[in-house]
Each structure stands twice: as C-alpha cells, then as structure tokens.
Amino acid sequence: MSATAEPQAPQRTRSDEARSMLREIAESSALVIVLAIVASLLLGGILIVLADPDVQEAAGYFFSRPADTLSAAWDALSSAYSAMFAGAVYNANAATFAGAIKPFTQTLTVATPLIFAGLGLGMGFRAGLFNIGAQGQIIIGATLGAMVGFMWHLPVGLHLLVAILACVLGGSIWGFIPGFLKARTGAHEVITTIMLNYIALNLVAYLLTREAFQRPGSNNPQTPVIDESAQYPLILGSQFPLHLGFVLAIAAAFGVWWLMERSTLGFQFRAVGANPQAAKTAGMSVPRAIILVMTIAGALAGLAGSAQILGTQKSLTVDIAASFGFDAITVALLGRSRPVGIVLAAILFGGLRASGPTLQVQAGLPIDIVLVMQSLIVLFIAAPPLVRFLFRLPSPRVVKEVTV
Amino acid sequence: MKLELRGITKRFGDFTANDRISITVEPGTVHALLGENGAGKSTLMNVLFGLYQADEGEVLLDDNVVRFAGPGDAMAAGIGMVHQHFMLVHPFTVAENVMLGHEVVRGPARLLDLDQARNNVREISDRFGFHVDPDAVVEDLPVGSQQRVEIIKALSRRAEVLILDEPTAVLTPQETDELLAIVRQLRDSGTAVVLITHKLREVQEIADKITVIRRGKVVGTALPTASREELASLMVGRAVSMTVDKAPATPGDVVLSVKDLTYVDQFGVTQLDSVSFDVRKGEILAIAGVQGNGQTEITEAILGKIPATSGQVFLDGDVITDLPIKDVLMSGIGFVPEDRTEDGLVAGFSIANNLVLDIFDREPFSKNGVLRPRAIAESAEKNVAQFDVRTTSIGATAASLSGGNQQKVVLARELSRQLKLLIASQPTRGLDVGSIEFVHSRIVAERDGGAAVLIVSSELDEVSALADRIAVMFHGRIVGIVGPETSRETLGLMMAGASTEVSA
Predict the structure, then answer these.
(1) Distance CA B473, CA A42 (A)
(2) pLDDT in tens, B245-255
(3) Which of A11, B97, B166, B502 has the fewest CB atoms within 10 Å distance of its CB?
(4) Is residue A17 part of a domain?
(5) Same domain as A201, residue A127
(6) Does A243 share its domain with A388?
(7) Cβ contacts of residue B56 below 8 Å, gap of 6+?
C-alpha cells in the first residue's frame, strides 16, 4: 500500500474533486426536481397499470399465466406513454409534418398563461410573499380585457394593445389590494388573496348575468366573442393554435430575470424576501417592496388572463381561468422561482395537460391520471428527503455553522 | 465518575469538526475546553451527549466504553449538560421544568407528583445555596437563576459529569462570580465539570486543567497558571495582543446628541426612560449593561428602526429623530447591528451583494436603477482584501462565512462610507480572539480618523479596553457616565442598578 500511495496521490486529488463536484450536483435541488419528475412518472406508471382493464383481466389468472399480466402491463404502459408523447410533443402517425408538430404548439399554447402567472408568483416567492391570488388576478385581468375586446371597437393594432393593457390593469389592481393590505395592516397575503379569488370569481359570475355582458340571443353566462382586432394573432399560421401571447411570455420571462437580477428594484425585492430585518436595517422600505411585488405579480397574472381571453377562449365565462392560477403556484415552485425554470416547468405542465385528450382517446385512460402525476411531482418536490431516499442520494452537506 | 474521550473524530461531509480528540476528566475537577468559535468544542460535547454520533473513537465512563444513541442515554449514564441556550419551558414553574421528561406520578389517576418535584428542587437548591423557589415561573426569573434551574435539572438526574456550554455568555459580572462559586462547590462534592468557553479570565480562575482546541484538534494542554497571552496564542495559533493600542482621545465637537429619549414599546413597557448623552468627534462612548436593559433600543431608536415615544436625537445639530432609516444612514451614520445574522446580513446573498446592502442604489454600484455588477465586484474584492475576509470568493454566500468573517463584512460595508458617527452593537460577540483584535483596531482607527463612536457591549473587558467614556444602563436609564479606569466591581454594581455620583 505504502509503495503505491505516492504516485497515486495526485490522481486521488482529482477523483476527490470529481466526487465533490458530483456531490454538488447530487445535492442541487435541480437534480431533485428532475428525479421527482422521474419518480412521479414511475409511480404514475403503476397507476396506469392498475387502472388498465386488460391488466385487470390478465391479473385474474395471474398464477396460471403470469406472463400475460406482465405483457398486458407493458402494453398499457407503452401505449400510455406513447400517447402522452404523441399528445404533447410529436405525433409520428400524423399525415403531414404540420400535423406531427401540432401537439407541441398546443403544449406551448397551454404553457403560455402558466408562464405569465408562474413568473409573477415566483417573483413573490423570492420576495417572501406567498401569493395564492393568481387565479383571481387572471379572472379580473381577463374580464377587463374582454370588456375592451367586445365593447370597444378600435383600429387594428391599437385594439389589441388596449386590450392587453386592460388585462394588465385588472391583474395589477387585484395584486395591489393584498399588497397594500399586507404593507399597511399586516394582513396575511395567503388569506387576503384566497378571499380575493372568491370575490373575483363571483364578481364575474354576477357580471355575466347582466345584459351588457350577455351574448345576443343566448341565455348562457357567456359574453360575445371579442373583436378579431383584439385577439392575439396566430404566429405560425391558422393551422396551429400558438399565438403571440407565447412570444410575450418569453419576453416577460426575460424581463423578470432582468428586473430581479439586474435592477436595483429587484435587488431590494430579493433582500426583503431573504431577510426583511436586514433589508430594513440597510434602509430599504419593506412595505414599498411588498406593494410593488404584489402589483407586478398581479400584472403578470393579468397577462396570463390575456392569453386566455385574447388568445384561446375569446369570450368570457366563469371558467376563463380554468385552474391556471393554482397550477401556476406549482409551476413557480417547480421552476424554483427562476424565470428559466418557470418556463420549463410551464412547458412540462402544458405538455401534461395537452396530452390529456390523446391519453383518453388513444390509451383509454382517464384524464385524471395527468392530474395525479402533476400532484405527485409536487408532492415529491415538497419532500426532497423522500426523493434523496428513493434514489439513494447523499444528503446535503451540513453547513459549518453546526460546528460552532 | 471519570470521563474519558478517546480519539473522537466527527466529520460533516468533507469538513472534519473533530479530529482524533482525546481528553480525560477526573472526578472532582474542572476541565476547561478552550477554543475559538468554530474550533469544534460544541461538536465534541454534542458527541459526548449523544446528539451526534462520532465517526471514530469512543467514550469511556469509569473505564467502561459507553454508546449513547441520544441525550436520554447520556443523562441516564450520569452526564448532564447546560446548553448555551437554555432548554426551559418558559411558562412552567421551576419544579415543573425540573421534572419535565422524568415525570413522577402517583395514585390511580396517575397525577403528577409535584410535591416530590418541589422537594427535589428545594433539597438541591439548599445543598448548594442556589436560592431558587420551586414554584417560581421560569420566565419571571433572571437569566442567572434560569441557568441554576438548568443545573438543578442536571443534578436531579444524578449527573456526575456536568457540561457547561459557554455558561457566562449571558451573565453579569456578579452572576458570573456566583456561577463560578457554584462550579467550585460542585467540584468539591465530586462532580466532574467540563467548562466550554473562550473566556480566558474564567479559565484562569477556576479550571484545574485546560485543553485547547483549534480547528478540531487538540493543540495543547495548559495549567491555569498559564498567562492569558500564552492561552490566547495557543487558541489562535499566533501571538495575540490582549490590549487595544490606542492613544488618549482628543474629543472635538459634539456629533451625536441624545436628549430625553423615551421609548415605550407596543406592550406599554418603557424600554428607554428619558435617556440623554452626547458623543463627541474623536471619542468612543461605550454603553455597558446587562443585555436587555435598553441598549439595543437606544441604537435602534437613533437609527429610526423603532419610533421614539418622546425626546430627540441630533446629528451635528440637526434633528434626525423622525427621518427614514435610509436618510439617517446617508447623513453619515454607520450601523453595526447587535445581531449580524438577523439584521446585518442577508445570509443567502453573496458577500459582494452584502457589501453594498445599503449603498446598492448609489453610483458607482448602480445607475438609473440598473445594477453594475462589475463595480460591485471590484469594490468587493477591495474590501475583502482590506478587511481580510477569509472566503473562497466574493460570490460565496454570507452564510458560508464564520461569525468573525461575517462581522468583517458588516464592518467593511459600514466603514466604506464617510462616517460622522459609527454605532456598533456587540461588535465582537461570538468572535474569536484574532478577529476581536482586528475589529477593535478598526474601531479605534475610525475614532482616530475623526468619527464619533458609540459602542454597546455586554463584555466588560471590551468596554474597558475600547471606551474613552462609559455609560452604564439599567432598566432603560443611564445610571451614570464614568471614565474608562473605573473598576470592574464598580461597573458591575452600576450594571445591577446602583447609581453613582461619579462622572467623567
């Protein structure tokens, strides 16, 4: 041993370095997130197998012919995952190239409101605010946007611009309120934003019963379709659903990155979020930061509303926000509140959601399985030690402070 | 009971907190474990107490190897520990706290036998002269008495080895003397006492044997007859000067003037009771006092972090009482908060960003609301070099730094502006000897550079070493302002509320 120890020494240092680098990767939460997705796909796979009728049938005679059960399980899994892939990314069976990539444009379209709202929520998280109010902010933004869209008739170009601004205005008002309440009275944003969600929802339900909001000749709670001049143009032509909102969302992601990382305002937001006491002692105004962050987050949620009303739905109903405001919370957490992460997480969720119908039609699986998988991802991410345990990862190094 | 640690090694990842540490503590002796913060003293004791599992090495009690899976095992084996932060339930009485976890019940209803607990407390209290009432509610007791409750807790479980982790950090000089007397009694009754500390004075006064730990290793043993310089240089690893080199002050005009400052907090408690004092250019005024007597509130009221109920604060003759914090800082006040991790630093931010926490929005660090990372980095490199902040890079988080280096970051930031007044609360709390030396020299340099300096410290050694004048606070009032040559005894009496007519 002692004879070979010397020449090996430098090599060992290098492998030590490699090991500590690997350890760093292993400890990083990015890896945990990827593994959480993997784990939820695996667990989701078990559910798919269990829910499959062929598997259930084959399992009835499992002990006489176990291979049948296994092959049925394999069939169920492969058809489910290929249906998900075909529904969200690339449909190899399509007759044309356009048909083949259409699922992916659908994924990006669904991702658009998630990106906007996720960016706003992520900003809030980094500033220490647990904003649950994207749902209400989307609704109010979409409502104002819809009003501009079908009540006003402006020239092409201007109409869209004013409609977008109306969405932004609506969202920011609904974000400003809880921000102001928190800054001035200390009212907790979780409670106020949840309540404002209900208020927004019921406000829209009420408005839709008024004559001014009703579609002529219809008794359904639904507004007229907004003018074409107020709609987001389709950027890849009429055979794809992808609209200009997606480009704006990517631009917004860059804008939020710049705001948080490069501007003095973002510096304050981050400082207030990480340690409000130190921020205050350094002379920053914590209330001002809270109000600004909530207002900007509301504006971004309002843009998510614009993607719905001006991009995909085109008329206002009570379901205008679907569950985007809540899914955006997950997206922001999954993306670790960073713009790039949020865009990727939103695309993942957009894909899961877009694949739902295909999954149902092609693989005969309930659409709920997608929701179960989404929830599993979140569950795993919320419990990093669980993921580390499942994949036998080392636990994060104990910081030196422990050894005082 | 004899306690022996043999070759204890404890690693956290790549970091070795304890490296083959061996010590032996004989019954009826006081063994001092001396070392800087982060040297690994507390880790070692946590291993001994069963809170951590050692990677290598063994613990022996009376020459038998023992293994502790948790503190419960350690206590059952006769080891008691008084943590630096007390583990007491505040709304409970002394007797309830003492029986906690070892509740005795009686009768078919299995009711708590509080009488027995009371008697138990009374018996131990009388035996050692603790003067602790078993029915007193813990939160009503002064800190020194709370500490005695912790000791009673350990003794009631028949501890024969007692570990005291930095026991004097929270005590007045008088309370410290009382504690040392108690430790002597315990020793004489045959208890083995392990005293963890970085205070040389106590070690010299009471230890029978001294083991010095540096960077996780035993670097030497010493006898209590060793001089403070010898002990300090063993601890730090180089020669250390124990006194602050400073020329006599040459006070100039009044810079800070506090007039009848009163602060009543949200619960209606008067924390500051018409406090008045001046600090002149080129002098250091130190405010001494036991923690919680209004010193923190004075500094925060000057900064504007808490609103003055009445009274005024003047800087160079201008009222700054109701200005926003930002304006107070920019009018030329540097502020080193008492709790650097809570108020001074954003732990998750890089060192570079922490160095501009209060000046990020001025040139050259930003322009028109846009940060200039290069300017921030350049200035950070300069400050890190100048203040000798030990770090791998300016991009490392503040959380990754040791306490001393964190304090250097705060100081570097505050001193990088042109100051009229420097306010520093507990500037060397938790710092090791080497860092204390450095921080003190920077504070004196600031004074000599023409700033007025206001120091708040609960360390009498620090107050005496730095101050040109000493103001002593008790219950929100200034008891008196005295000269730096005032004896520890007099200062201690004043800190306990005895007023004095002496003034300087």
Answers:
(1) 65
(2) 888 888 999 99
(3) A11
(4) no
(5) yes
(6) no
(7) B7, B8, B9, B20
CA distance B361 to chain A (A): 6
| Omega before residue B364 within 30° of 0, cis | yes
Residues of B in contact with A20 (CB under 8 A): 14
* CB < 8 Å to A400, chain B: 12, 15, 38, 400, 402
> How many structural domains are present in chain A?
2
Q: Do B344 and A278 touch (CB under 8 A)?
A: yes
- Cβ of B325 and A262 within 8 Å? no
Query: In whole numbers, what is the pLDDT of chain B averaged over residues?
Result: 89
User: pTM for this structure?
Assistant: 0.79
What does the longest C-alpha to C-alpha distance in chain A come to? 95
pLDDT at B274 (0 to 100):
93
State whether A84 and A176 are in the same domain.
Answer: no
Is residue A336 one of the residues assigned to a domain?
Answer: yes
A–B CB contacts, 8 A cutoff, strictly below: 98
Q: Please, what are the domains in chain B?
A: 3-236 (3.40.50.300), 252-332+420-504 (3.40.50.300)
Same-domain pairing of A227 and A330: yes
**Rounded Cα gap, residues B251 and B467, in angstroms:** 12
Contact at CB, A401 and B337, closer than 8 angstroms: no
Q: How far apart are CA A395 and CA B306, in angstroms?
A: 41
Rounded to whole angstroms, the Cα distance separating A104 from A91 reads 9
The answer to whether B55 and B10 have CB atoms below 8 angstroms apart is: yes
Name the one residue in this structure whose structure tokens are 């259930």.
A56
Q: In this structure, are A330 and A183 located in the same domain?
A: yes
State ipTM: 0.79
CB contact under 8 A, A403 and B42: yes
Residues A167 and A218 in one domain: yes
Q: Which residues, in sequence order, are CB contacts of B186 under 8 Å at separation 6+?
A: B128, B151, B162, B193
CA atoms within 13 A on the CB side of A135: 22
Question: CB contact, 8 Å: A399 with chain B?
Answer: yes
Q: Which tens digit of pLDDT belongs to each residue from A246-257?
A: 999 999 999 999
A227 and A147 part of one domain:
yes
Asked whether the predicted pLDDT for residue B403 surpasses 90, the reply is no
Q: With left for phi above 0 and alpha for psi between -120 and 50, is residue B217 left, alpha or beta?
A: beta
Taking a C-beta distance cutoff of 8 angstroms, is the pair A105, A241 a contact? yes
Q: Which residues of A touch B12 (CB under 8 A)?
A: 397-398, 400, 402-403
Q: Is residue A289 in some structural domain? A: yes
Domain that holds residue A67: 29-88+365-395
